[in-house]
Amino acid sequence: MSADSPGGLTPPAPPGARWPAAVLDPRLDEQTRTIYEKSVAGRRAFTPPVTDVPEVPIESLLPAAMRRSAPAELPEIAEPEIVRHYNGLSKKNFDLDTGFYPLGSCTMKHNPKLHERVAALPGHARLHPLQDPEHAQGALELMWNLQRALGEIAGLPHVSLQPSAGSHGELAGLLVTRAYHEDRGEHRHKVLTPDTAHGTNPATVTMAGYEVVKVGTDEHGGVDLEDLRAKATDDVACLMLTNPNTLGLFDRNIEEIASIVHDVGATLYYDGANLNAVMGISRPGDMGFDIVHYNLHKSFTQPHGGGGPGAGPIAVSDRIEPYIPRPQVVREEGHNGHGPRFALDSDRPKSIGKLRGFQGNFGVFVRSYAYICSLGGEGLREASETAVLNANYLRALLAAPDVAEYLPIAFDRVCMHEFVLSGRGAKEKLGIRTLDIAKRMLDHGVHPPTVYFPLLVDEALMIEPTETETKETLDDFAGVVCAILVEAADDPEIARNAPYTTSVRRLDEAGAAKNPVVRQAPR
Amino acid sequence: MSADSPGGLTPPAPPGARWPAAVLDPRLDEQTRTIYEKSVAGRRAFTPPVTDVPEVPIESLLPAAMRRSAPAELPEIAEPEIVRHYNGLSKKNFDLDTGFYPLGSCTMKHNPKLHERVAALPGHARLHPLQDPEHAQGALELMWNLQRALGEIAGLPHVSLQPSAGSHGELAGLLVTRAYHEDRGEHRHKVLTPDTAHGTNPATVTMAGYEVVKVGTDEHGGVDLEDLRAKATDDVACLMLTNPNTLGLFDRNIEEIASIVHDVGATLYYDGANLNAVMGISRPGDMGFDIVHYNLHKSFTQPHGGGGPGAGPIAVSDRIEPYIPRPQVVREEGHNGHGPRFALDSDRPKSIGKLRGFQGNFGVFVRSYAYICSLGGEGLREASETAVLNANYLRALLAAPDVAEYLPIAFDRVCMHEFVLSGRGAKEKLGIRTLDIAKRMLDHGVHPPTVYFPLLVDEALMIEPTETETKETLDDFAGVVCAILVEAADDPEIARNAPYTTSVRRLDEAGAAKNPVVRQAPR
Amino acid sequence: MSRYTSATDADRQAMLDTIGVGSVDGLFAEIPEGVRLQRPLDLPAGLAEQDVYDHLAALAARNTHADAETSFLGAGMYDHYTPALIDSVLQRSEFLTPYTPYQPEISQGGLQVMFEYQTAISELTGLPVSNASVYEGPSAVAAAGYLAKLETKRTKLVVSRGLHPHSRETLATHAKGYGMTVAEAGLDSEGVTDLDALTALVDDDTAAVFVQQPNFLGTVEELGTLGEAAKRTGALFVVAADPLPLGILEPPGALGADICVGEGQTLGNRLDFGGPSFGFFAAAERFIRKMPGRIAGETRDVDGKRGFVLTLQTREQHIRREKATHNICTAQALNALAGVIYLSWLGKQGLVELGELMLRRTHYARETLGLEAINPGPVVREFAVRVPDLDAVFERARAVGINPGYRLGRDYPEYEDGLLVAITERRTKADIDRLAAVLGSVREEAHA
Amino acid sequence: MSRYTSATDADRQAMLDTIGVGSVDGLFAEIPEGVRLQRPLDLPAGLAEQDVYDHLAALAARNTHADAETSFLGAGMYDHYTPALIDSVLQRSEFLTPYTPYQPEISQGGLQVMFEYQTAISELTGLPVSNASVYEGPSAVAAAGYLAKLETKRTKLVVSRGLHPHSRETLATHAKGYGMTVAEAGLDSEGVTDLDALTALVDDDTAAVFVQQPNFLGTVEELGTLGEAAKRTGALFVVAADPLPLGILEPPGALGADICVGEGQTLGNRLDFGGPSFGFFAAAERFIRKMPGRIAGETRDVDGKRGFVLTLQTREQHIRREKATHNICTAQALNALAGVIYLSWLGKQGLVELGELMLRRTHYARETLGLEAINPGPVVREFAVRVPDLDAVFERARAVGINPGYRLGRDYPEYEDGLLVAITERRTKADIDRLAAVLGSVREEAHA
Ligand SMILES: Cc1ncc(COP(=O)(O)O)c(C=O)c1O
Ligand SMILES: Cc1ncc(COP(=O)(O)O)c(C=O)c1O
Fold first, then answer.
1. How many CB atoms lie within 10 A of CB D78?
2. To 5 degrees, how large is the angle CA B429–CA B434–CA B435?
3. What residues does A217 pair with on adjacent strands?
4. Cβ(D287)–Cβ(D151) under 8 Å?
5. Is residue A269 a contact partner of residue A289, using CB atoms and an 8 Å limit?
6. CB distance B98–C93 less than 8 Å?
7. Minimal CA–CA distance to A371: which of C21, D2, D331, C129?
8. SS3 state of residue D214
């Protein structure tokens, strides 16, 4: 029903054109309204508990100068309409439980429903972060177990769960690197990042007070060793790498790279966003990395929540251990028959200190720990194997001539968990850009791959199917890609103007940035 | 993405027609598939717990003759696809949290989210029905409190929570009526029901072994007193009535009706489906009813669940009390300082016995009890007042000439919680039937009213907005009705062929009944 | 103002103006003075959400639920593990809040669920036709009795004493209404239906014969022979079954059952102190137009697109009224949805694996407890034993957080010392051994 | 095979054939032998869903959660009641499972939520620009420090000792990275920021001054005067605030704050042992292009229809890389959603009513406990007192299921005998009286 309907008896104009024009959904005319625009003075969803203490006049408790002069303009609305409002908004989101979501580098794997159940247990969800450790032994043991498991997976013994996301883990990694060098009296000011690196890497480098030095990519899609040797000078603090890298390729020269970096005394940092390719198969620690971050919201099933929460724990080698954030969960062997005790150790003199409040995103830890318990070592390996199998199968489907002509693969090699195509051909031969292909996919009910990243691939489409998708889904997706290309060969306008079936069509992003409207106009 | 897509590289034919034909959602071609059709041999969502006892050969435990020869053909499918399947199906349902649902006689009021939380508490959801009462005192107290509250609301002291739904409550009502008469040595074989009665009433009469005698409706929409007097003979066991009745009208003659019925020694039964009109305002017991059923899934917010669960408790007067179902929750005063105890009393010699397993739909009781606790006596009265206010407001909006010409009201009086329009005018003057109006409403995103009931109104539309809807929603709905009529005046074909925007369009119901396909074809 | 209603004073005034009535009270003028409530309802005042939560949480805390003890209690409802995905689907408002699908074009989700559910029940029972649910097990038994009456016009029902006591009583309650009598055939010394007794009861006026699989004591009945005895005189053979063991048991439909009904709680539903769950109702093809309740059927829309509708509605109360095959309207759709999700989760292999796990653990338990068996025959998930000192056992077991099971004496005087023990996949070998230890210790003391 | 993957052996073979590789191992040929793991991961074997549930439930049972005791613990996270409707919305997969809204046409729900959230934060803080969330409170403080550096190019940060200890430490950790020093101004004898000390510390190289509202001890700071002192030399005035008390306190934006950040847990988020919650970040208009993180903005589509997008992205890492205003990518969208639902639920009136209820109960508690106040000034939800025999009090309180609060000595040696007591709407007068009784009994014994 039209949200803007004047209501009452003024009938909305009948659909002008005659049927079949009238088949258009009347609701399509609807303009979305914010919850503030649905507010009506005097309505409420909240009933205050009774005031069981003396009703002392507020003025006597709070000086007028400190007291709010005008109430915050929050909505006034009853529960039924709040529910409908957010329910309605949810229907304007595409999500992983609805369809295929091959967003490269984001590891959109299934989020098991069990995890929501265990995370909601009052013993977890209702536990105060400052509860006396004696009364939080279950939570501390869970964290300790997770530290241990993550350490084993990365092949690095010491884990700090504290960072809140991948980029926070990256910052932690560079801060411990700085502490490590300074502790040895060294002051290094450069950090190397490959030109394929994710944007958070260079951004982190700056925030950590370092200068970014870019390293090139060779013709196989790996680090250009010559360039690396040239730039690996003794004022380099660290090389940040992800392996497999953002092209979805495993760098065959990883051992060589590690020795080059270590020879100049720098640390080797592993961006774990792509860990889903190698769990139980190859461990960053064994590759020579000193520091690793995990994205628990990628490899370890924390739901993405439309942009978080996540968690970005780090694992480090012995030499880095003294510097990791505090507090750290430690296990104390039990004495005379008692089981082990778990404690929060803040007495870590060389630690870089706290990176955030309390002990980290515990609710995320619960889900990731449940996932590890469900799969076990074998299951994690199988997950990575299947992720790589799915990626290569889809790569093979899309390598067929009628697709490859328009969307050639960036580096024609066996890939790991993801691969990157270039929209070059489509742009030149069909006159449609990668953006157009992505938008047309929306009409087909699939989420597009990551587009225009990595930067060194022209018109990039970065495709990560993950292990939890079926063969049929991959087949269907290949069919959709074909359909879009065939359609574009017939009429490129269709893709150029897509999408058509979404709640809104292409949006004016430039205009939004030019005159930013970032809140409801104050009443 | 097309579910039937051959997959692989055979591209689905591109949308034949040129743009703007291509704006049609490619997904609209999708044919729905059942979960059985998504099954692939070898897939699984279930991991069995380890067998921790001796792996004795099954044959030695279960004779071959008793053992299943071929496994049941259940789907083979992993969790992610099960989730997507049912998520996808959910998106093909319209629901109360999505929009207006003025389904007459069904009281589609808001279902508070708190109720789901308290119903899910392990102490409720995980409590075994045969748990020793000593270990179920909380549950029994809740049931006792609910019995008491419902009794107060109906004005009848004795409540049995056992019946599973309204029609089950009706059956309980007639079975206790039979027991009551037989206990007094009387054998009556008729039950009176007005011609406006809901279908469950006559159906129940037959199931209870009685013969239905129909009573007419007078020009004010109430029971025809003449007809009632004529038919109220001493072989009549009961009169089943709902007040307000299914026309949404309160029967002014209720006192007279009660005395006529009581004079011939029959019981007066109150179908509580319409109780939402009179909570705290007028009580069936005070009107002279002997037996009442409640629909907890209507007046008391149990979500309808797409067709249940519900609960249909009954309340009765003292003379009927000996016959109500067993067991009954009773309260025993605590002795020497102890609080009261609650018990299940099965020692009720005159009881009609059990109507179902265990103690009734406890999970429903929890929700309805929470609702009563939230609103209190005042709140319940306010709920009924607002339900009646909303109904009369919408009635007034739709009484405007440009609507009333096509959809005249059946009985032009102040209504209670609902009212009934007739589509007579629209049929004659616009050539569209009530069914067409209902189907066109689907395109406007509102659920149609109950249609073609009550039977005595030609082309009936039975509209019940409930108290939880906003004035704006009622205004919008009136606008939709206008829009459909205006549109039909312009081109009736539009409504006749509606809906257009739903996941399927008008379905062949006759064909479905002619050659019933009621299960997936066996493999 | 209530948190669930939106009408402000301003709204009220505007609406009253439109209506043309001076006050809200004015809307109730039609209600005779004499039947108006002249006082507020005598109920506690309304509460804030947090206070309602606290009150109900406090009540819940006074119940000992299945996770708060190690329970061997079954006897009709069982502590099976329900996967988290069920709740996540059931809590979607699109399944939780709609009414019965009267408008199929906007109810395809619910209708397809019914169709998938009917298929699963048909597979489990081995009968071609299932409805979309009835209330619960015992009233499903009563519904079968009503169908038998409509079908045969006979007046007598014969039940095995192995039928759940609640089913027998519920059947009797309903039968009284539709004018039938119920006769009961006892159990033999092995705890299975006494074939001779049953045969003797079945006569030309017998409309239906009811047995339970597995029976109340947990024994797997020989449906084949019982069915023959039942059908000799043309009575319908009705089997009340627990759907979960049917994963490893030959389906009733393959053993001569005309109708198979049962309690659906074991299929992914909560214990909920006894409800809501659902009852299922499956039958042979020839009864399709006599079935109670909703049935979903497949069809096509005007564009030829596949869809589902409520079908064969001419059976039902809203169309047929006093001639309806049953009076049921609101049933248990949401619980049936839980059932079909649960079965999809278990899947073809899982259903068998779960059944065999229970089978093995149950036999392990029967051996380990080392007590005299009341029903020595094959059992799947439950068995009955004689326990010399039942009170002492309960006392001792409760003290260590164990609920040993169901006292058969509550319904079967002949088994005054009987204990019915249920072993679901939630009860491990360790749990069983703990129960055995308690029993052992009590036994020793008795001898000491 | 895992319950979360679908590849059967047949699928695997078919896929390998298409790929043209003989085996799955063959896909890993690129990984040098030397860095391959030659053994299985040393982790416990995978478990059935019910076993994982049991394991985690057993761990959870060893934690004393906020419903399992009467807790007066706050100190940065608070036991507020979160309405059930929040979970019902957050558990909808459409909010729970999507990624950051990179495709606005299919993410309008999440984007509009961000816009509504930004509006609510703007209203609470009295500042026009809010982002869509950062990680949590303390790292929001650190983000403000980074903005101050980018804005002023200065190297010094001044913090009040009234700032949460975690915020001060987190700020220091981050400042070390971006090359700034942190100086601290103490609290005066009344437990509020020492204005003179603060003034003395602020110099021409000071980039920003940080105070907390209410401060860690619960006192409402005089932001106006502190702001003036801070801005004398052109430093930014940053206020870290708890958004809930801001319902009744004059907003920082109206008292001179350039930036207001804070911990969002109190807005409808779980305690979760400390996370995930969200941090909010609001600022004056002139900082809009220096903000960290995502910002949603309103715009129109090609048909002129209203819509929302992620805007001002040229600030962000994925575009600006090393020149980005912050490195944050994944933030706390779902937690911010809980926040805006919570605020919509409280509503314009409710926010005030809740604040006033806490205010009254808190003052009642401070009087009733009858202990020496560390911060006698105005408090809203929390206050600090000196307790002669803290250990005895904890022991006695714990014994009767009361958690008396936070030991200030853990972070403030100067308040070794300090107890920080939080009074949310969950703590009733009766709870407060019980705590008072415990304190009283300990006091008496001390005197006896
Ligand atoms: C390769 C890579 N590195 C780092 C990140 C940053 O992780 P987060 O979003 O958790 O901060 C991402 C996330 O997209 C990524 O893909
Ligand atoms: C007037 C009336 N009576 C009885 C019933 C039957 O109630 P139930 O569906 O709970 O069996 C209904 C339900 O629609 C009804 O509207």
1. 24
2. 130
3. A223
4. yes
5. yes
6. yes
7. D2
8. coil
The helix/strand count (H/E) of chain A reads as 16, 12
Q: Residues 6 or more apart from D448 whose CB is under 8 A from it? A: none
What's the N-to-C CA distance of chain C in angstroms?
Answer: 69
- Residue A292 CA: which ligand is closest? 1
Distance from chain centroid for Cα D197? 28
Distance CA(C389)–CA(C371), nearest Å, equals: 12
At C75 the three-state DSSP class reads: coil
Q: Both tokens of residue B135?
A: 């270990």
Total Cβ atoms within 10 A of residue B52 = 14
ipTM rounded to 2 decimals = 0.97
Q: List pLDDT tens digits, range A209-221.
A: 999 999 999 999 9
* Residue C429 to residue C414: CA distance in whole angstroms: 30
Q: Please answer whether residues A285 and A154 qualify as being in contact, where contact means their C-beta atoms are separated by less than 8 angstroms.
A: yes
Report how far residue A110's alpha carbon sits from residue B227's, in angstroms, rounded to the nearest whole number: 66
DSSP H/E element including B267: strand B267-271
What does residue D420 show for φ and ψ, rounded to 5 degrees?
A: -100, 120
Q: Examine residue A129 and say whether the peptide bond preceding it is cis (omega within 30 degrees of 0).
A: no
Structure tokens at D370: 């009858």
Round to whole Å and give the CA distance between A328 and B80. Answer: 35
d(CA C108, CA A51): 49
CA–CA separation, A440 and A422 (whole Å)? 17
How many angstroms separate the CA atoms of B202 and A441, rounded?
Answer: 55
| Better pLDDT: A30 or A377 | A377
CA distance D399 to chain C (A): 20
Inter-chain contact B97–A113, Cβ cutoff 8 Å?
A: no
Instruction: Report how far residue D89's alpha carbon sits from residue C345's, in angstroms, rounded to the nearest whole number.
Output: 25
List chains adjacent to chain A, taking adjacency as at least 3 C-beta pairs closer than 8 Å.
B, C, D
**Quick one: which of D279, D273, D307 has its CA closest to D293?**
D279
> How far apart, in whole angstroms, are the C-alpha atoms of residue A432 and residue B183?
86
pLDDT tens per residue across all 448 residues of chain D? 689 999 999 999 999 999 999 999 999 999 999 999 999 999 999 999 999 999 999 999 999 999 999 999 999 999 999 999 999 999 999 999 999 999 999 999 999 999 999 999 999 999 999 999 999 999 999 999 999 999 999 999 999 999 999 999 999 999 999 999 999 999 999 999 999 999 999 999 999 999 999 999 999 999 999 999 999 999 999 999 999 999 999 999 999 999 999 999 999 999 999 999 999 999 999 999 999 999 999 999 999 999 999 999 988 888 899 999 999 999 999 999 999 999 999 999 999 999 999 999 999 999 999 999 999 999 999 999 999 999 999 999 999 999 999 999 999 999 999 999 999 999 999 999 999 999 999 988 887 7
- The interaxial angle of helices D333-369 and D108-125, nearest 10 deg, is 30
Ligand 2 pocket at CB < 6 A:
B 105-106, 165-167, 198, 200, 242, 246, 271, 273, 295, 310, 312; C 329-330
Contact D318, D335 (CB under 8 A): no
C-alpha dihedral, A400 to A403 to A404 to A405, nearest 10°? 120
CB within 8 Å of chain D, chain A residues 219-248: none
Does D49 contact C84 at a Cβ distance shorter than 8 Å? yes
Residue A431 CA, ligand 2 centroid: distance in Å:
61
Tell the burial category of C337 from Cβ atoms under 10 Å away from its Cβ (0-12, 13-18, 19+): buried
Chain position carrying tokens 């390998």: D16
Q: Which of A441, C104, A92, A76 minimizes the C-alpha distance to D92? A: A92
The beta strands (E) that lie in A198-254 are given as 211-215, 236-241
CA angle B459, B463, B466 (to 5 degrees): 170
Q: Which residue has the tokens 């997959």?
A: B7
